[in-house]
Fold this protein.
Amino acid sequence: MSLTTKLCRPLLSPRFISTTTTRLMSDTTAYNCKALNVTQAAPFVFNVELNRPNKMNALNKAMWEEVGEVFTKLDRDQECRVVVLSAAGKMFSSGIDLSDLSQLASVVYSEDDIARKSMFMYQNIRHLQDLFTTIEKCKKPVIGCVHNACVGAGVDLITTTDIRLCTTDAWFCVKEVDMGLAADVGTLQRLPKVIGSQSVVSDLCLTARRMGSEEAERCGLVSTVFQTKEEMMNAAMDMATMIAAKSPVAVQGTKMNLVYSREHSVEEGLDQVAKWNMTMLQSEDLMKSAMAAMDKSNTEPPEFANL
Protein backbone atom coordinates (compact mmCIF):
# COMPACT_ATOMS: atom_id res chain seq x y z
CA MET A 1 0.00 0.00 0.00
CA SER A 2 1.42 3.40 -1.01
CA LEU A 3 1.98 6.27 1.41
CA THR A 4 -0.64 8.29 -0.48
CA THR A 5 -3.28 5.58 0.01
CA LYS A 6 -2.50 5.24 3.69
CA LEU A 7 -2.89 8.98 4.25
CA CYS A 8 -5.99 9.33 2.09
CA ARG A 9 -7.91 6.32 3.44
CA PRO A 10 -9.15 7.87 6.74
CA LEU A 11 -10.00 11.18 5.10
CA LEU A 12 -11.75 9.83 2.02
CA SER A 13 -13.62 6.93 3.57
CA PRO A 14 -17.44 7.05 3.15
CA ARG A 15 -17.90 6.96 6.92
CA PHE A 16 -15.67 10.01 7.42
CA ILE A 17 -17.30 11.98 4.60
CA SER A 18 -20.83 11.08 5.71
CA THR A 19 -20.19 12.01 9.34
CA THR A 20 -18.51 15.30 8.51
CA THR A 21 -21.12 16.30 5.95
CA THR A 22 -23.99 15.52 8.31
CA ARG A 23 -22.34 17.56 11.03
CA LEU A 24 -21.98 20.64 8.84
CA MET A 25 -24.98 20.43 6.50
CA SER A 26 -27.97 22.72 7.05
CA ASP A 27 -31.51 22.21 5.82
CA THR A 28 -32.14 23.35 2.25
CA THR A 29 -33.04 27.02 2.25
CA ALA A 30 -36.29 28.06 0.55
CA TYR A 31 -36.12 30.83 -2.04
CA ASN A 32 -39.59 32.17 -2.74
CA CYS A 33 -39.34 35.24 -4.97
CA LYS A 34 -41.48 37.16 -7.42
CA ALA A 35 -38.94 39.37 -9.20
CA LEU A 36 -36.16 36.76 -9.15
CA ASN A 37 -36.08 33.13 -10.18
CA VAL A 38 -33.72 31.09 -7.97
CA THR A 39 -32.91 27.52 -8.97
CA GLN A 40 -30.25 24.95 -8.14
CA ALA A 41 -28.79 24.42 -11.60
CA ALA A 42 -26.24 21.76 -10.56
CA PRO A 43 -24.86 20.31 -7.33
CA PHE A 44 -23.70 23.28 -5.22
CA VAL A 45 -24.44 25.73 -8.08
CA PHE A 46 -27.37 28.17 -7.92
CA ASN A 47 -28.72 30.35 -10.72
CA VAL A 48 -30.29 33.67 -9.72
CA GLU A 49 -32.24 35.08 -12.66
CA LEU A 50 -33.71 38.58 -12.94
CA ASN A 51 -37.29 37.72 -13.77
CA ARG A 52 -39.26 40.75 -14.96
CA PRO A 53 -38.92 40.13 -18.71
CA ASN A 54 -42.10 42.03 -19.58
CA LYS A 55 -40.62 45.09 -17.84
CA MET A 56 -37.16 44.62 -19.44
CA ASN A 57 -35.95 43.49 -16.00
CA ALA A 58 -36.21 47.04 -14.68
CA LEU A 59 -35.13 47.09 -11.05
CA ASN A 60 -38.10 47.98 -8.88
CA LYS A 61 -38.25 48.01 -5.09
CA ALA A 62 -39.36 44.36 -4.92
CA MET A 63 -36.46 43.13 -7.05
CA TRP A 64 -33.98 45.25 -5.12
CA GLU A 65 -35.17 43.84 -1.80
CA GLU A 66 -35.13 40.28 -3.13
CA VAL A 67 -31.53 40.66 -4.34
CA GLY A 68 -30.48 41.53 -0.79
CA GLU A 69 -32.58 38.76 0.75
CA VAL A 70 -31.50 36.03 -1.69
CA PHE A 71 -27.76 36.73 -1.55
CA THR A 72 -27.86 36.96 2.23
CA LYS A 73 -29.43 33.48 2.27
CA LEU A 74 -27.03 32.12 -0.35
CA ASP A 75 -24.13 33.31 1.76
CA ARG A 76 -25.35 31.07 4.59
CA ASP A 77 -26.69 28.19 2.48
CA GLN A 78 -24.23 25.29 2.79
CA GLU A 79 -25.68 23.67 -0.32
CA CYS A 80 -24.50 26.68 -2.35
CA ARG A 81 -20.84 27.09 -3.33
CA VAL A 82 -21.12 29.18 -6.53
CA VAL A 83 -23.81 31.52 -7.90
CA VAL A 84 -24.59 32.38 -11.53
CA LEU A 85 -26.42 35.70 -11.95
CA SER A 86 -28.36 36.02 -15.22
CA ALA A 87 -31.59 37.47 -16.60
CA ALA A 88 -34.71 36.23 -18.37
CA GLY A 89 -36.11 37.78 -21.52
CA LYS A 90 -34.60 39.93 -24.25
CA MET A 91 -32.12 41.87 -22.12
CA PHE A 92 -30.22 41.82 -18.85
CA SER A 93 -31.69 45.03 -17.37
CA SER A 94 -32.98 48.40 -18.53
CA GLY A 95 -32.00 49.96 -15.19
CA ILE A 96 -34.07 51.37 -12.37
CA ASP A 97 -37.84 51.19 -12.70
CA LEU A 98 -38.92 54.74 -13.52
CA SER A 99 -42.11 54.39 -11.47
CA ASP A 100 -39.96 53.91 -8.36
CA LEU A 101 -37.84 56.89 -9.36
CA SER A 102 -40.98 59.01 -9.63
CA GLN A 103 -41.90 58.07 -6.05
CA LEU A 104 -38.58 59.48 -4.87
CA ALA A 105 -39.23 62.61 -6.89
CA SER A 106 -42.51 63.11 -5.02
CA VAL A 107 -40.49 63.23 -1.79
CA VAL A 108 -38.01 65.73 -3.22
CA TYR A 109 -40.74 68.12 -4.35
CA SER A 110 -42.91 67.77 -1.27
CA GLU A 111 -43.27 70.65 1.21
CA ASP A 112 -41.78 68.67 4.11
CA ASP A 113 -38.87 70.06 6.11
CA ILE A 114 -35.63 69.87 4.10
CA ALA A 115 -33.68 68.24 6.94
CA ARG A 116 -36.22 65.43 7.21
CA LYS A 117 -36.43 64.96 3.45
CA SER A 118 -32.66 64.83 3.22
CA MET A 119 -32.39 62.25 6.00
CA PHE A 120 -35.04 60.11 4.30
CA MET A 121 -33.18 60.30 1.00
CA TYR A 122 -29.85 59.43 2.62
CA GLN A 123 -31.29 56.40 4.40
CA ASN A 124 -33.04 55.22 1.24
CA ILE A 125 -29.88 55.50 -0.90
CA ARG A 126 -27.77 53.73 1.71
CA HIS A 127 -30.34 50.94 1.94
CA LEU A 128 -30.27 50.36 -1.83
CA GLN A 129 -26.47 50.39 -1.76
CA ASP A 130 -26.42 47.80 1.02
CA LEU A 131 -28.79 45.49 -0.87
CA PHE A 132 -26.41 45.30 -3.85
CA THR A 133 -23.38 45.02 -1.56
CA THR A 134 -24.77 41.69 -0.29
CA ILE A 135 -23.54 40.20 -3.61
CA GLU A 136 -20.02 41.43 -2.93
CA LYS A 137 -20.17 40.29 0.70
CA CYS A 138 -21.53 36.85 -0.24
CA LYS A 139 -18.65 34.45 0.38
CA LYS A 140 -19.67 32.35 -2.62
CA PRO A 141 -18.22 33.45 -6.00
CA VAL A 142 -20.79 35.11 -8.26
CA ILE A 143 -20.55 34.84 -12.06
CA GLY A 144 -22.48 37.60 -13.85
CA CYS A 145 -23.93 36.77 -17.28
CA VAL A 146 -25.05 39.74 -19.39
CA HIS A 147 -26.95 39.63 -22.67
CA ASN A 148 -28.16 42.62 -24.68
CA ALA A 149 -28.72 45.80 -22.64
CA CYS A 150 -27.21 46.44 -19.22
CA VAL A 151 -28.15 49.99 -18.26
CA GLY A 152 -27.87 52.20 -15.18
CA ALA A 153 -28.62 50.17 -12.07
CA GLY A 154 -27.81 47.06 -14.11
CA VAL A 155 -24.20 48.25 -14.26
CA ASP A 156 -24.31 48.90 -10.49
CA LEU A 157 -25.44 45.29 -10.11
CA ILE A 158 -22.85 43.55 -12.28
CA THR A 159 -19.90 45.46 -10.81
CA THR A 160 -20.56 43.63 -7.53
CA THR A 161 -19.99 40.23 -9.18
CA ASP A 162 -16.64 38.41 -9.18
CA ILE A 163 -16.52 37.22 -12.81
CA ARG A 164 -18.44 38.71 -15.73
CA LEU A 165 -19.34 37.15 -19.09
CA CYS A 166 -21.43 38.62 -21.90
CA THR A 167 -22.80 37.98 -25.38
CA THR A 168 -21.71 39.76 -28.56
CA ASP A 169 -24.92 41.81 -28.57
CA ALA A 170 -24.36 43.04 -25.00
CA TRP A 171 -23.86 46.70 -24.32
CA PHE A 172 -23.34 48.69 -21.15
CA CYS A 173 -24.44 52.22 -20.32
CA VAL A 174 -23.98 54.32 -17.16
CA LYS A 175 -27.15 56.28 -17.89
CA GLU A 176 -27.55 58.33 -14.70
CA VAL A 177 -25.97 61.57 -15.97
CA ASP A 178 -28.66 61.72 -18.67
CA MET A 179 -31.27 61.39 -15.93
CA GLY A 180 -29.92 64.43 -14.09
CA LEU A 181 -28.10 62.68 -11.26
CA ALA A 182 -24.82 61.04 -10.32
CA ALA A 183 -24.87 57.24 -10.12
CA ASP A 184 -25.18 56.46 -6.42
CA VAL A 185 -25.49 52.69 -5.96
CA GLY A 186 -21.92 51.57 -6.66
CA THR A 187 -20.85 52.19 -10.26
CA LEU A 188 -18.72 55.26 -9.50
CA GLN A 189 -17.00 53.40 -6.67
CA ARG A 190 -16.58 49.91 -8.19
CA LEU A 191 -16.19 50.47 -11.94
CA PRO A 192 -12.78 52.22 -11.64
CA LYS A 193 -11.47 49.18 -9.75
CA VAL A 194 -13.04 46.72 -12.18
CA ILE A 195 -11.70 48.41 -15.32
CA GLY A 196 -8.56 49.99 -13.90
CA SER A 197 -8.66 53.03 -16.19
CA GLN A 198 -9.97 56.27 -14.68
CA SER A 199 -10.06 57.82 -18.15
CA VAL A 200 -12.36 55.13 -19.58
CA VAL A 201 -14.58 55.22 -16.50
CA SER A 202 -14.91 59.02 -16.65
CA ASP A 203 -15.66 58.77 -20.37
CA LEU A 204 -18.47 56.26 -19.77
CA CYS A 205 -19.95 58.01 -16.74
CA LEU A 206 -19.82 61.57 -18.07
CA THR A 207 -21.05 60.90 -21.61
CA ALA A 208 -23.51 58.06 -20.86
CA ARG A 209 -22.41 56.46 -24.13
CA ARG A 210 -22.84 52.78 -24.88
CA MET A 211 -19.92 50.40 -24.42
CA GLY A 212 -20.16 47.38 -26.69
CA SER A 213 -19.10 43.84 -25.85
CA GLU A 214 -15.77 44.08 -27.71
CA GLU A 215 -14.71 47.18 -25.78
CA ALA A 216 -16.01 45.66 -22.53
CA GLU A 217 -13.75 42.63 -23.04
CA ARG A 218 -10.80 44.77 -24.07
CA CYS A 219 -10.94 46.96 -20.97
CA GLY A 220 -11.58 44.06 -18.58
CA LEU A 221 -15.22 44.65 -17.66
CA VAL A 222 -15.94 41.10 -18.89
CA SER A 223 -13.66 38.08 -19.18
CA THR A 224 -15.13 36.44 -22.27
CA VAL A 225 -17.65 37.26 -25.02
CA PHE A 226 -19.94 34.57 -26.48
CA GLN A 227 -21.97 34.48 -29.69
CA THR A 228 -25.23 33.49 -28.01
CA LYS A 229 -26.82 33.53 -24.59
CA GLU A 230 -27.01 29.73 -24.64
CA GLU A 231 -23.25 29.46 -25.19
CA MET A 232 -22.63 31.97 -22.41
CA MET A 233 -24.86 30.18 -19.92
CA ASN A 234 -23.30 26.79 -20.74
CA ALA A 235 -19.82 28.24 -20.20
CA ALA A 236 -20.92 29.89 -16.96
CA MET A 237 -22.33 26.62 -15.66
CA ASP A 238 -19.17 24.75 -16.64
CA MET A 239 -17.06 27.33 -14.80
CA ALA A 240 -19.36 27.28 -11.77
CA THR A 241 -19.28 23.47 -11.64
CA MET A 242 -15.48 23.51 -11.81
CA ILE A 243 -15.25 25.99 -8.94
CA ALA A 244 -17.87 24.14 -6.88
CA ALA A 245 -15.80 20.95 -7.06
CA LYS A 246 -12.91 22.65 -5.26
CA SER A 247 -12.50 23.09 -1.52
CA PRO A 248 -15.08 25.60 -0.23
CA VAL A 249 -12.56 26.65 2.41
CA ALA A 250 -10.09 27.57 -0.33
CA VAL A 251 -12.66 29.15 -2.68
CA GLN A 252 -14.41 31.28 -0.08
CA GLY A 253 -11.11 32.31 1.48
CA THR A 254 -9.82 33.36 -1.93
CA LYS A 255 -12.88 35.51 -2.68
CA MET A 256 -12.90 37.15 0.75
CA ASN A 257 -9.22 38.01 0.54
CA LEU A 258 -9.49 39.31 -3.03
CA VAL A 259 -12.32 41.67 -2.01
CA TYR A 260 -10.44 42.74 1.13
CA SER A 261 -7.19 43.39 -0.75
CA ARG A 262 -8.96 45.51 -3.35
CA GLU A 263 -9.93 47.98 -0.62
CA HIS A 264 -6.69 47.89 1.37
CA SER A 265 -2.95 48.28 0.92
CA VAL A 266 -0.73 45.35 -0.10
CA GLU A 267 0.69 45.15 3.43
CA GLU A 268 -2.78 45.07 4.97
CA GLY A 269 -3.85 42.40 2.49
CA LEU A 270 -0.82 40.26 3.31
CA ASP A 271 -1.54 40.52 7.02
CA GLN A 272 -5.20 39.65 6.47
CA VAL A 273 -4.47 36.49 4.47
CA ALA A 274 -1.84 35.44 7.04
CA LYS A 275 -4.47 35.72 9.79
CA TRP A 276 -6.93 33.79 7.62
CA ASN A 277 -4.53 30.96 6.81
CA MET A 278 -3.17 30.56 10.32
CA THR A 279 -6.48 28.78 10.94
CA MET A 280 -7.56 27.59 7.50
CA LEU A 281 -4.29 25.81 6.71
CA GLN A 282 -5.28 23.40 9.47
CA SER A 283 -8.41 22.40 7.55
CA GLU A 284 -8.89 18.81 6.40
CA ASP A 285 -9.43 20.21 2.88
CA LEU A 286 -5.72 20.96 2.54
CA MET A 287 -4.72 17.35 3.12
CA LYS A 288 -7.50 16.04 0.87
CA SER A 289 -6.41 18.34 -1.98
CA ALA A 290 -2.75 17.49 -1.52
CA MET A 291 -3.39 13.75 -1.46
CA ALA A 292 -5.63 13.96 -4.54
CA ALA A 293 -2.90 15.85 -6.40
CA MET A 294 -0.36 13.17 -5.48
CA ASP A 295 -2.61 10.27 -6.47
CA LYS A 296 -2.19 10.29 -10.27
CA SER A 297 -4.31 7.14 -10.68
CA ASN A 298 -7.49 8.87 -9.54
CA THR A 299 -8.94 11.52 -11.88
CA GLU A 300 -11.98 12.29 -9.71
CA PRO A 301 -11.78 15.37 -7.47
CA PRO A 302 -11.92 14.74 -3.72
CA GLU A 303 -15.19 15.21 -1.87
CA PHE A 304 -15.30 18.17 0.48
CA ALA A 305 -17.67 18.68 3.39
CA ASN A 306 -20.02 21.66 3.20
CA LEU A 307 -18.94 24.90 4.80
